[in-house]
Design a protein that fits this description.
Keywords: Glycosyltransferase, NAD, Transferase. Its EC number is 2.4.2.-. By secondary structure, this protein is an alpha+beta fold. The chain has 2 domains: about 35 residues, no CATH class; about 240 residues, Phosphoenolpyruvate Carboxykinase, domain 3, CATH 3.90.228. Helices cover about 20% and strands about 25% of the residues.
């Protein structure tokens, strides 16, 4: 693939987040000089967002995956408005890679035909306070505060201390006090309800955000019932897997699978997706 930085024709690798060696070094060594479309400065470093042009093959591939993973009929006329690659503080990225390797050495997942650390690309929906990014209105204005769940993730990565913080007042955690991810964009959609905002350019559409993330699942535990107080899986397991039809709560079971992890270095926000729809039941 070609480097995602505009006007750069150097070759790049997906594992290095689409950067050529030159831009990879700038990101790691001088993030304030990195040519991001949006810069978010926190206490220790910068996060940079690179917008993926709609005409590129990469945008089309992500869009296709996102829409194919929308399996629950809970929204109409869903479309992606913008996709950004996320370039966090390099230390956060290296911590994730170190944990993934640690899990791999313990479980030998590559030897079983799986990815390193049983890594999966999953979705995480969340609230946000600031105006949604829209490439039509050019409102690339993020509030950049920790009070905004979306901006908090962009600045600091996923944080266990933020588990359960949401604008909807939800307290039910089927798989315990973890960070939740799902292979279905339509399931993650529900968790962004508190941040839904009317499109500034089309009053018939509403916008939300979602994260596409790398998650080192490792060896997942499969519980048979709800445990809201769970703060880690049993010994020998690295995450909790809520499978379809399992974990009943009253008369309700899981209709769509999800995963919970209990440490921040087991997951890494990869892409920031702004999308819109005309109506939704959730």
């Amino acid at each position: 693939m070609i480097c995602v930085i505009q006007n750069c024709e150097n070759s790049a690798k997906e594992e290095e987040h689409g950067l050529c060696n030159s831009h990879l070094n700038i990101w790691k060594e001088s993030p304030s000089l990195f040519p991001g479309n949006i810069k978010i400065q926190n206490v220790s470093n910068y996060t940079n967002l690179i917008k993926i042009p709609k005409k590129t093959q990469l945008f089309k591939e992500i869009e296709k995956r996102f829409l194919n993973d929308w399996v629950k009929p809970n929204a109409n006329d869903v479309r992606i408005e913008a996709i950004f690659n996320i370039y966090l503080n390099p230390t956060i990225v290296e911590n994730y890679k170190a944990y993934r390797l640690q899990v791999e050495l313990k479980g030998n997942f590559k030897g079983k035909g799986l990815s390193e650390g049983n890594e999966k690309i999953l979705y995480h929906g969340t609230d946000h306070i600031c105006q949604i990014i829209s490439d039509k209105s050019h409102q690339n204005n993020l509030c950049k505060t920790d009070e905004c769940c979306g901006c908090g993730i962009l600045m600091n990565g996923f944080e266990i201390s933020k588990v359960g913080h949401n604008k909807q007042g939800r307290s039910f955690q089927r798989l315990g006090q973890g960070l939740y991810f799902t292979p279905f964009s339509s399931k993650a959609h529900f968790y962004g309800n508190g941040g839904a905002k009317r499109s500034p350019t089309d009053i018939t559409r509403t916008c939300r955000i979602m994260f596409m993330s790398k998650v080192a699942i490792g060896n997942p535990w499969e519980p048979q019932r709800v445990d809201q107080n769970l703060s880690s899986p049993p010994s020998g397991f690295d995450s909790t897997w809520g499978r379809k039809g399992r974990c009943p709560h009253g008369s309700s079971v899981l209709n769509y699978e999800e995963y919970a992890i209990y440490r921040h270095d087991a997951c890494l926000p990869l892409r920031y997706i702004a999308y819109s729809y005309t109506s939704t039941s959730e």
